[in-house]
Amino acid sequence: MTAASPHPGSGARGRRRVVVVGAGPAGLTVGAVLRAAGVDCLVLETESREFIERRPRAGVLEEWAVRGLERRGLTRNLPARAQRHTECEFRFAGERHRLRYTELTGQHHYVYPQQFLVTDLVREYADVRGGAIRFGVRDVRLNDLESDRPSVSYLCPESGERRVVECEFVAGCDGAHGVTRTALPAGRAGLSRYDYGVGWLALLAEAPPSCDCVVFGMHPRGFAGHMQRGPDVTRYYLQCPPGDDPADWPHDRVWTELRERLGARGAPPLREGRLIEKRVLGMHGYVVTSMVSGRLCLAGDAAHLTAPIAAKGMNLALHDAFLLGDALVARLTEGDERGLAGYSAACLARVWDCQEFSQWLSEVYHGTASGDPYRAGLTQARLRRLFASRTAATAFAEQYLGTAATG
Ligand code: FAD
Questions:
Q1: Is 57 in the pocket of ligand 1 (CB under 6 A)?
Q2: Ligand 1 neighbourhood includes 199 CB (under 6 angstroms)
Q3: 263 CA distance to ligand 1 centroid (A)?
Q4: Mean pLDDT of 286-303
Q5: What is the pLDDT of residue 189?
Q6: What CATH topology corresponds to 13-76+113-192+286-355?
Q7: Which of 115, 165, 191, 244 lies at a C-alpha separation of 20 to 30 Å from 283?
Q8: Which run of H or of E encompasses 324?
Q9: Mean pLDDT, the chain, whole residue set
Q10: CA-closest residue to ligand 1 atom 41
């Protein structure tokens, strides 16, 4: 990355101890942890504050993640606004089957839309803890990451001028489409990928939930999912071919398909509403083999992507952010290197566990509609075991809630 002129056309220069690239759950949490310890940092974000505070994505937080936020003083609004969930429902072969995970493990899921969490975190980082943040930046570039004086530059949205910020560490928290992962030296930072070969039509409906818990529908026409997001908004998923065009899914087709795939004896009728988001997600994942290179530490989707099959992405982003925030504070305030030295391995153990669980769950969701009687048979065996064996149900619940030991 080092060139004769690392930041061409650069003007103003500044200095911070840490530059965090990306203001998602990972970046804002790292920033808030740094600020709580009095570490000077700057968060750079390409979008506006209004945009990130409204961007709907994930909605499920695992209990350990909520406790981690709590310990760091980051749950100002969460207790009043989040719903606590204790069970989920599987629908297959026309029947409903409840899995009461709190009864099995004592742990909950919290439904707290990602945009609420991001709004809380921006407020805490910038308004309460006085953290510096620049929205709307363009063309972020990283330099000299292998030296002890790396720098990050960006185009200022107001002046169009390139600003250069020297620092001691860069936290790469810019998600799946960011730039920091591409700064990892080729060869040293391996990237492994997996493609599930299916797509999900991700929908947000302006409608109250149709059931009091998350519902997974395994149907010969494809998987369908139902997830609460609030009293008036509900997320639905419909399995579809990976490259499908959302325009081919008009209102009537969506609701007909959802009714069919989520139909089961005694199930309450779906509560329909206007579709306010409709996008096709290719189900795939990737993992970088080391999340640290020189003075660059990746966190969240920048380092690993987990298809939303098991609702793990936001939780993994927070897990990384807790470890990275604490490790940077220890390094920068006490010179303690241990947290940073073990950071990548500690994150990746949980990441691989979630990748494995997603694989397992993907077969449960997609096997029935695969057209392959062997895969459909595997799905049925897994579902039967889940509801015949308390041990199997507990093992599922531990992975679903993120409490399973990862070694
Ligand atoms: P992000 O939230 O992507 O944040 C990265 C930030 O960096 C963004 O604000 C972006 O604008 C910014 N950025 C990008 N490029 C640059 C750049 N060059 N310079 C500066 N800033 C940049 N996860 C769950 O746990 N449960 C769920 O139920 C769930 N459902 C999902 C549903 C959908 C439809 C989608 C898309 C995702 C879902 N996820 C879910 C995944 C979850 O949203 C992500 O894993 C999570 O957002 C990762 O957080 P992050 O901070 O790593 O990255």
A1: yes
A2: no
A3: 32
A4: 96
A5: 67
A6: FAD/NAD(P)-binding domain (3.50.50)
A7: 115
A8: helix 313-334
A9: 95
A10: 313
